[in-house]
Structure to design on (490 residues):
């Protein structure tokens, strides 16, 4: 793409350019209330050469926007803590709420190209990273986000001149780092790397816009024109409409819930002896996980009163409390509803060497949100592949991903509901919503069966935990966890 870009001559700016710029600024300011009313989230990514003027252009652009409507994030070189999370973690973290802007000063493209140039990504890793970027951008676009990607282009001489001017002034010298200087000395090599990455990540749903940044005021007009036109188009038709994933995943066959035998049980003695051994072993494995920096993500789904809480309690009893977190997932809060549905799960991911245990998960999208009408049919149908992609990101990162469906029958649920309702200290566990959901048992079972069939991938398969006998369920889950961790630690 950069190979095809030709810089045009830049005559001195005249009153016509200033008038056009003033008109575009006014248009951008006038679009704010419409963006808010339409609940359109706008993510503007500024990439480009060191010294190209990303900070200045962001500053000039946001002057037209009410400060309550935007945030600016400078995505500097990732810290040590950042590197202990999946690559996309810090970018998912900063996506905007519906009806607001986020401006990024550099981002995922620059970080990827830099890692490639510094030899931290080999050929396969680099190709996988670019595929991840396209997936991330497609998920945002399909979720209704307007994603504007801008690359600021300057030639070698212009970059050298700007960097020298910045370095010569003691008040701006801090803006030139070693990488900027290295980039200037190796302009041709960096040009080829940027060109390749731009070409690979230039998609119909998130195209790159290359702007000639040699003339500052013309660049400002180009950015403002691009942004206002993109907003008008998005307000007329929501971005990503009808966009679906094309990626296919190898799946592990799963039985229908009705075909799962639930007559498995343990005696009290078998349970006590086995539980003690498994918990001791899990405690040892946790220490090794921390030393080897292996992250673990465990998700629990299942029927109300199936025993998820007791199962999690026996699991965490074996773990160092400094190295795990249990994340209970309830109905999303307003600030969560205002973002992509996976946002709150990306934010809660563990760092390397730690364990995150989700009590209910991202699968709510294809169960409760589907059945209660909290999302559209196209939303939940698209989610199967998006969830598979999310979990593939985690396993490619090196995480152990374990997913448990805790299974009971309808009679067992009724008996446990009745016990909770008739036992004062357990009444907090039973709600009117539990009884209402029970009336939709058949619909939920159909949705769960479809979920199991479409998301039990080879890298993140489902495990059905028979829980009519809670003792058996706890031992089975612990056995699966310890075996999976042993395999990962090998």
């Amino acid at each position: 793409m950069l190979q095809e870009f030709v810089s045009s001559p830049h005559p001195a700016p005249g009153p016509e350019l200033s008038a056009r710029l003033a008109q575009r600024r006014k248009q951008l300011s006038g679009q704010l209330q419409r963006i808010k009313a339409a609940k359109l989230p706008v993510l503007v990514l500024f990439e480009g050469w060191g010294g190209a003027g990303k900070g200045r252009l962001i500053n000039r652009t946001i002057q037209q926007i009410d400060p309550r409507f935007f945030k600016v994030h400078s995505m500097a070189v990732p810290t040590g803590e950042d590197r202990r999370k999946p690559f996309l973690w810090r970018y998912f973290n900063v996506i905007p709420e519906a009806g607001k802007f986020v401006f990024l000063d550099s981002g995922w493209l620059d970080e990827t190209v830099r890692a490639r140039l510094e030899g931290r990504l080999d050929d396969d890793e680099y190709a996988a990273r670019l595929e991840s970027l396209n997936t991330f951008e497609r998920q945002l676009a399909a979720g209704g986000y307007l994603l504007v990607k801008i690359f600021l282009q300057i030639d070698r001489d212009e970059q050298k001149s700007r960097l020298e001017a910045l370095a010569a002034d003691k008040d701006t010298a801090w803006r030139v780092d070693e990488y900027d200087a290295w980039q200037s000395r190796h302009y041709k090599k960096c040009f080829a790397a940027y060109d390749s990455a731009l070409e690979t990540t230039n998609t119909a749903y998130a195209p790159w816009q290359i702007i000639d940044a040699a003339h500052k005021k013309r660049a400002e007009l180009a950015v403002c024109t691009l942004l206002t036109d993109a907003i008008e188009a998005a307000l007329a038709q929501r971005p990503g409409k009808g966009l679906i994933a094309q990626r296919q995943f190898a799946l592990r066959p799963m039985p229908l819930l009705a075909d799962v035998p639930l007559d498995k049980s343990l005696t009290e003695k078998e349970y006590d002896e086995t539980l003690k051994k498994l918990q001791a072993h899990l405690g040892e494995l946790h220490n090794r996980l921390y030393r080897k920096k292996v992250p673990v993500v465990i998700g629990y789904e299942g029927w109300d009163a199936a025993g998820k809480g007791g199962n999690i309690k026996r699991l965490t009893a074996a773990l160092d409390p400094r190295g795990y977190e249990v994340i209970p997932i309830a109905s999303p809060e307003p600030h969560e509803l205002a973002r992509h549905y996976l946002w709150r799960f990306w934010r809660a991911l563990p760092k390397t060497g730690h364990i995150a245990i989700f009590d209910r998960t991202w699968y709510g999208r294809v169960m409760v949100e589907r059945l209660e009408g909290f999302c559209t049919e196209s939303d939940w149908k698209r989610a199967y592949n998006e969830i598979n992609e999310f979990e593939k990101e985690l396993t490619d990162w090196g995480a152990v991903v374990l997913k448990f469906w805790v299974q009971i029958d309808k009679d067992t649920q009724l008996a446990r509901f009745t016990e909770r309702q008739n036992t004062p200290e357990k009444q907090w566990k039973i709600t009117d919503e539990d009884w209402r959901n029970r009336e939709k048992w058949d619909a939920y079972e159909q949705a769960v069966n479809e979920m199991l069939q479409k998301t039990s991938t080879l890298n993140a398969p489902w495990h059905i935990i028979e829980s009519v006998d809670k003792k058996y369920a706890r031992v089975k889950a612990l056995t699966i966890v310890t075996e999976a961790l042993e395999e990962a630690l090998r």
